[in-house]
Amino acid sequence: MSGKYDIVIVGSGGGGLTAALVATSLGKSAVVLEKGPTIGGTFAYSTGLAWIPNNRHMQAAGIDDSVEEACAHIRSLSGGRHDEALLRSFVTNSSAAIAFLEDRCGVPFEMPDNFPDYYSELEGGKVAGRHLSSPIFPAKEHLPDEWRSQLTNSPYYAMVPASWKEIQGWGGFGTVATWDWTMLAQRIRDDYRAFGSAVAGWMLASLIRQNVAVRPHADVRSLVVDAGRVVGVRASTPAGDELFEARYGVILATGGYDGSEVLKRRWDPHPMTVRLGAPTVDGSGLVMALEQGAAMAMFDGQLLVPAYNIPGEAAADQPLYRLFIRELCFPGSMVVNRRGKRFGDETFYRDLCHEMVHFDPLSQEFPNLESYFICDQEWKDRYPLASVMPGDVPGWMISADTPAELARKIDVDEDGLTETIATFNGPASRGEDPAFGRGSTNHGRNGGDPSVQPNPCVRPLQGRLYAVRMALGTAGTNSGLVINHEAQVMHVRGDPIPGLYAAGNVAANLAEGLWYNGGISNAKGMTFGYIAVRNALDAAPVG
User: 199: helix, coil or strand?
Assistant: First the structure.
């Protein structure tokens, strides 16, 4: 129903749910408006990891960290593109936001063991401690039946109802063949949620307990402005057009624009991508803010990730593309282009994506965009590829007994692939990759198979070979609205737009610039959702 609230939140991802929890815990009223039929957004699709420096869990484990050390780490890797005030605001408030969610809202977090920063070897990096996640969420126990069906269950992780702490304790994804799949199957039957869906579930359960208004099927179309201040939103709902007024502020937590082909073509500097996030993330929050003169920062377009599609798999009436990250770390595999050549370190997806979008001005082509994952028989027998279990060979999967035969089947240069595998195999027999340093970082080795030594990511390819075509995917947006350290959306002329705040991927990555670490998007969403509410409540209310 239409109404007046202290805080109006658009979007139900991590930023939006955090904002609602903070508002209600501080004794204020809030409404969460979600365009889609389920709650959680891309946040619920995600790994659920949050990069939180200097958090209480690492302190309890005796792992040293500090605000200054974390800031120095990001500063040294941002390419000079970060905003110093935003950086300090994020690092200073992120641990406080998590503590608030735990202590005041009953949302649990835990620290997975041995989970390194992407750049743990560089200034300020850590080999463990900064990543937090939630334990698995027993939906039957904590949500009424009508809300269980309205909690987004990640199409990527629904079949793996395990926590990150458990997975790391089992040896990581490289040991997947040894996991207790009977126990996991029982958890699926009992409706346990994991990864991003678990965090969203704990948050939603807390909101339901406190009778906070959470409205799916509420498509916010425009901001309401009075005397230059944002005072509410208009939304299309099953009940018709409704007005939601905000006494203190409106918080945009709508995600980026990775679901909009029009906006991606307009704003992205790289080739078109396939979407891995929630289908409702279509840039609507950006457009509404831009209509009010909001400033936008253009970075590298999308947060790029390698992806793949298993023929026949779909979600929201579109082909389901999955993250192609962990599988690339397992030994007995490589990624090649149409020339049959490797072009990066497969254990670090950012390296691969950087090369996939490289444009050659002489040939006027993206030479690495069309690429293939190649693995051998031992890889196929040991590791799953999403729903394709170890040893299974579905009809769509291309295979051959020799590199030349495989190359012909996938239209890759025969001599190139044959030479690449032969050149790789010599050093690989010693666990080495002199070309690209595969498995040379803490993060890369963490994704490998610990039973393979001396390098858990490297061994020669031998026996029958298999190929899967890769795609360029997006798991979020880098470009977005300019916000200040108080999460206020900035006008193009340099002043905050009164009453308008933003959290999550709808805001540009000004806190970290060109640096990225797993879990940073989730962490920023929750942190700036926390910051936005606290600062909005410091302002004089409307009416």
Answer: helix
